Amino acid sequence: MTEPLMKIRGLRTSFKIAGQYYAAVDGLDLDIYKNEVFALVGESGSGKSAMALSLTKLHNPNYTRVEGQVLYAGRNLIALDEASLGNIRGRRIGMIFQDSALALNPLIKVGAQIEEPLIYHSDLDKKQRTAKALQLLEDVGMVSPAQTYAQLPHQLSGGMRQRVMIAIAIACNPDIIIADEPTTALDVTVQVLILDLLRKIQQDTGASILLITHDLGVVAEMAHRVGVMYAGQLVEVADVFQLFANPMHPYTRALLASMPGNSRRLRAIGGVVPQLQHMPRRGCRFAHRTPHVPADIHEKEPIYHEVAPGHYVLCSCYRWRHVCCT
C-alpha cells in the first residue's frame, strides 16, 4: 500500500472538567490514504467529532489539551503554531462542519463567506474570486448561483446551507476533506443529494474524505475503509466489505445488529458509553456492555490484532462470538 497522506499517532484529546482533564480521544492511531473515503463510525459520545476537530486544532485551547502526532506533508500539525496551521486549514485541509447554521456567519452574505478562503490562500483578484465563488455554487448544485451568492445563510434551506459549506471546503482544492456528520438533521432525500455530491467531488478531485457519521447506511454507501470508534478508542478498522461481511469486535457486531433489517429482529445495545470522568482505566471499554463475553476473554491491556490483511481489532474479545451479536 502507498504511503499514507496523513498519519495519526497517539492522538489524545482531553477536555477540562471541574479543573481536571479527561480524555475523549485516547491514544488513537490511524492512517488516511490518498483518494479514499475513510468513515469513522460510532455512537454519540464515542469521540468522533472530538477527533476530527483535533486534527487541525480547532478546539478551544483554554479547555482542551491535544497531544500526539498528526503527520501531514512532513509536519506534525499538533506542534504547529496558529499562523502555520492557518496556512493549512482551508487550503490543504477542508472542513464540513456538522451544523451549517452555526458554522456559517449569519451576518455575512454567502458569496463573501465562500471567497474568504480564496482571499487567504490564493492570488485571485476580486473579480476572479467572485467568478470562482459562482462556479463553486454551480458545482455544488445551486440552481441560481448568483441569487445564492447575494443571500444570507438564514435565507437558505438546510440542504442549501450544507452545499454552501461544501463549496467553502473545496474552494482551494484541498487534499483532505473532513466531513463531520454532513447529513445530520437533513431530510432523507436531501441526504442522498449531499452524499452524491460528496462522492462526485471525491471522484473528480481525488481528495481524501474523512467521513464522521453514526449512520451505517451512509458508511456502506460511501466508504472504502471504516474505523469503528468507542469510548475514545478505535476498536476495529477494516475495508468496508470486510467490516460488513465479517465484523469481529463485539461492539461492531452489536452496531450492525441494531440496524433495521427485513430478516431479523432489531436488537438494542444495552448500557451507555461511559462518561469521560468515569472511563475505565484498564481493559476493554466495551466489556461492561457485553455480559455474554467471559471476563477472562478480555485483555487487561488491549492491543490490536490483525485478523486479516488490513483488518485490525482491539482486544482479543473478538474471538468470542455469540448469537446475540450476529
Instruction: For the largest sheet, list the strands in their spatial order.
Output: 6-7-8-3-9-10-12-11
| Count of helix runs | 11
Query: How many beta-strand runs?
Result: 12
What is the H level of CATH, i.e. the homologous superfamily of the largest domain? P-loop containing nucleotide triphosphate hydrolases
The biggest beta sheet, please? 8 strands, mixed
User: Any idea what the CATH architecture of the largest domain is?
Assistant: 3-Layer(aba) Sandwich
Query: Can you write the helix and strand succession as a string?
Result: EEEHEEHEHHHHHEHEHEEHHEE
Summarize the structure.
This protein is of the alpha/beta class and 326 residues long. The chain is 30% helix and 24% strand. The relative contact order is 0.14.
Tags for this model:
24% strand, alpha/beta, 8-stranded mixed beta sheet, Rossmann fold, 326 residues, single chain
Model description:
This protein has 326 residues and is an alpha/beta fold. It folds into two domains: 6-223, 3-Layer(aba) Sandwich (Rossmann fold); 229-325, no CATH class. The protein is 30% helix and 24% strand. It is built from eleven helices and twelve strands. It has helices spanning 48-54, 82-86, 100-103, 110-121, 126-139, 145-149, 158-170, 188-205, 216-222, 240-245, 250-257, and strands spanning 6-17, 20-32, 37-41, 64-72, 75-76, 93-96, 176-180, 208-213, 225-230, 233-239, 304-308, 311-314. An eight-stranded mixed sheet has the order 6-7-8-3-9-10-12-11, sandwiched between helices. The protein is globular. The protein starts with 5 loop residues before the first strand and ends in a 12-residue tail after the last strand. The mean pLDDT is 92.
